[in-house]
Amino acid sequence: MRGLLSTLCFFLVSSALYAQGGYLLLSGKIIDKISQKPIPHAYIGMMSKGTGTLTNEDGQFFYRFPRIASDSALVVSVFGYQPFQQKASAFQPNQKDVVIELQPAQLRVVDSSYIKSFEARNWVSEALRKIKKNSSPNPYLLTGFYRESLQQNGEYVDIREAVLQAEKDPRPKILVPQKVKALRGRNFASQNRSKVMEGYAFPNGASIVTNSIDISIPEYLDGKNLYDYAYELDDTITTYLDKQVYRILFRPVSASIKAARNGIMYINSSDTAIVRIEYDFTPEGVKDVLKTSASDKMFGKTKRDAKRLYTCISYKPFGGKWYLQDYRMLLDTQFEQKNTQTLGTIKLQFVATDIQKSNGMRIPETDILIDTESFTQQTVPKYDELIWGNFNFVIPSEAMRQIINGLGK
């Protein structure tokens, strides 16, 4: 009853805000202008205000902003496309059928001689050296939307979602450079989940996907580890926000490198800022990351074989600095028990929806999120977004919404 009253009170407050003109919303889809296909993971928001969200896997978005910001530019951006920019006031208030077409950017193709002469390792080294210059030197607070999900043979059987705050303090000699707090959260757990995947999760997933390079250089590229990889300029130079971006491929120099990755680092040519890092662990690297005696015991007689561990981290500009935009991670594992195979897929995602100044003490250490198991269990067969209030979130895909069919009644 208390939860029902809270929801009702929130709905009334939200309605009052709309009546007073507190917030406006836009929702719709971002598509490729040529192919007319949806564009997933595209940013849409007001970069001048530090707010925004991402499209889901189906290219759909939901963006809420204060009415007072209506004259600010609404920006849509994604790698490989020309950015879209238009005043938010150009749209109808609370328009729900927005369709924005993005024009693919003209990629620059380079020849082999240019690739050979390009000092790729030096560019990576310089980009790492400039992290402090390109990032905020002062504490700040990221508010964002978090989702972790578990799929069983492609069907969603567990989805945990939350509005998180991540307080980051890049100042030296700070004992806790990052703190994460959950403002509200929920959990959809299907009754269709196989027992072979019990315990298959990332308990510290929220801490993983809120981390960013402004706190520390990635350990696999830090110091002497930089030389564990070979670097080469990709044969196409892409763009982001109309700026030229180098795609630098990296791969381990030998099979003996622990937790090795094959990946791409995207470096902005104008300020040498890292604007994206994405990689797959090598087959040996996946085993290095997931090999623990504790987890082996946890799975008992169930045979498991990790197939893929993928990470993608993107950054966006705000106030002359670069901040975490979104962090995605995917883990595929094949389970086998009594000759029955089950593919388990874990997806983690954090999308920064707001950037604010901080004094480094807005999140007390007593409020730090340890894991997501305590999120409220949802049993009502409805995927209701009212829970997020005026916070921005990522719309669940159509495939995610099907989880309500397997909820415990």
UniProtKB/TrEMBL annotation:
Family annotation (Pfam families): CarbopepD_reg_2
Protein name: Carboxypeptidase-like regulatory domain-containing protein
UniProt xrefs under InterPro entries: CarboxyPept-like_regulatory
Species this chain originates from: Runella defluvii
Gene3D superfamilies associated with the record: Carboxypeptidase-like, regulatory domain
